[in-house]
Every structure is written in structure tokens, then in C-alpha cells.
Amino acid sequence: MVPAGTRSRRAVRIAFAIVAVAALIEGSVRLLGKSGLLALPMTTHGSAFWDSDHSLFGVWHQPGMSIVHRTDCFEVEYVTNSIGARDAERTLESKSPRVIVLGDSFVEGWGIDASERLTDQLESRTGIEHINLGMSHFGPYQAYLAYREFGPVYQHDAVILAVVPVSDLSDLDYQRARKSPGYEYRYRPYLVGRYPDYREVDYREGTLNRWLRRHSGAYNAMSRSLQTARKTFAAEPPPSETTPKPTHSFFQDYSERQLDLLVGSIELLAESAGKRPVSVILVPQMRDLIRFHEERTSRLGKRLQERVADEGVVVVDLLPEFYARRDDLTRYFLPCDIHWTGVANEVAADVLLEHRPSARNGEPRR
Known about the structure:
alpha/beta, 5-stranded parallel β-sheet, 42% helix
């Protein structure tokens, strides 16, 4: 029988060896990451610009901050105002009409100067203030929460919500999030239940995962490798030449549950907006334009307009408009990113000005 003291010393040596090996692996991974030989997932932990634990939205900017965002194809400075929005400082009241614009990174202006964004172009061309409350990683329900928080603060006359189907339908789907092998580094509020009887649930990652993801490059590298492997093994075999498979697009390929969640979020927004007109713009990415080229239809645009018409909401589907207005579709997107260029924002502004909402006559401004 091994004496207790011997067992204790053996356990200490084993523990020390495990810690030493882990430290060696961690140091090697970080060195590879700094040298550019290994791509590590970006984290917002430790950045004064990002608040990845916002109690209401899950993610938001810190107020009165700036950061320079550099990638292979852009270098842009983001500056936030006193409420943490990437927007000009706004007065609480205004004698002139104003519009609040909600959405994710496309509205916020990922990778482009503020002057190139949709809101800034609309403001410069109309003289009407467009208050930008866009935030990267927002889904439609989070956008509604932001409106519920800031809408009563800023006097305004109309609301625009930008929906990016390729990400937003997933961002609304609690069931999909729970099955996802790679959970985002910030929690997200979700609607759960059956339409129209939803309740809110906050989905948060586990404490251990959260700590490792924030502090360990080796853990992040391993997580990314596992995600890639799962996607590879789960991928369907390529279609035959005789039966090509259409390009996947959430403008066409979505579940009724996802559509219900989107409609439910829009209805909550319309209710909060009161008598103010609400417009929803559907934002396409390249895969959506490719699918539209294949089929020349936008199923989501038609279905969504039918579902929200009774709420007085106008749906502006940018997919057919983008396809029709530009021969070179690549000019809509950043060369190293999925986000819009200034050209795309300009075209979107053109389309929106053709469908510009206006406050109803005789109704008080609030």
C-alpha cells in the first residue's frame, strides 16, 4: 500500500506537470497569434470601448469613447456619444422632425467612416436628423430593447429598423443558439414560447467557458478548430451537376418559427412607437443576391409585409432593388468583409428616400 505522503507528493507532481504543459501550450499559442501565424477569435474583454455585459441589451458601447478598428481592407475610428451610440451628440428635444434608426453592424457602419453610413447619408440629403442606435451583434429583439430604452428619451417622429436575414433570423432563434457549437462571447436576450405569447430569456455561457474564452488563447484556438471540424463533417456532399443545389439564403430559406419571432419583435417595436410610422428594411448580403439571380424572388419580403401590414409597418425589401441597380455586385461589399461599402449605403439611401415615411398629419410629436 502506497503511503499517504507519497500519494500526496505524486498528486502535486502530476498537478505541477499539467499546469506546466498548459502554460507552455498557452504561451506558444499566444506567440503564434502575435506573429500572425495563428488566427485567434477577437474578444472584447479588456477593451474600454465595448460593454459585453450590458444588463439590458447584452452588448453595447461604453459612452464617450473611441477606438481604431484595423483589418486587411480598412482602418476606421469609431467614436461614441454620451449614451454609447456611434452617433453625433443629440438633444433630447427637437423642433424639427427626427427619425430613430435601429439595427446591427450594418446600421452602425462596420468598417466605414460615419459619413458613409446610411443614417448620415439620409441626414445630409434630407436635413432630417437620423439618430443612429445601431449596434454590432444586435438582433431585432435587442434593437427593440434599445428603442424601448432610448425612444422615450429622444423626441422623434418615425422609426426605421434594419433587418439582416442572414444573421438576424439566427439571432432571434433561442433553440438554434443552444445547439450552436460556438456561442458568442456576449449573452443575448431571446424571445421564447409560441407566437404571439412570448417571454424573455437571457442566454448566457457557462462560468468556466466564459473565463477560459476571455483569458485563454489556447481555448479559443481549440474552440475554433472544433467548430471548423464540426461544420466540415456536417456539410452535405456537393450536389451533382444535374441537380445543383440553390445558394442558401434566409430571404428564401427560413422556418415559420423564425418568421414568427421576427414578426413578434416588429410588433413589439410598432406598439412602442405608438402612432409614429415604422419602416423595416431588409438588408441583403452577397449570398442573397446570388440566390436572387438564380430565382428572381424574395419570399421573405412578401411574407413579412403580409404579416405586419395590419400594424401599419412598411417593409422595404432591398434585395431586388440592389440587384437591379448595380451591374458589379461586389461593389456593395468590403473586399475583406461581408459588410456594406459606402456605395451600398448610398443605394440603400436612394431606395429609402423613395419610400420615405412621414409623420401622420395632426398627431402630436412625443
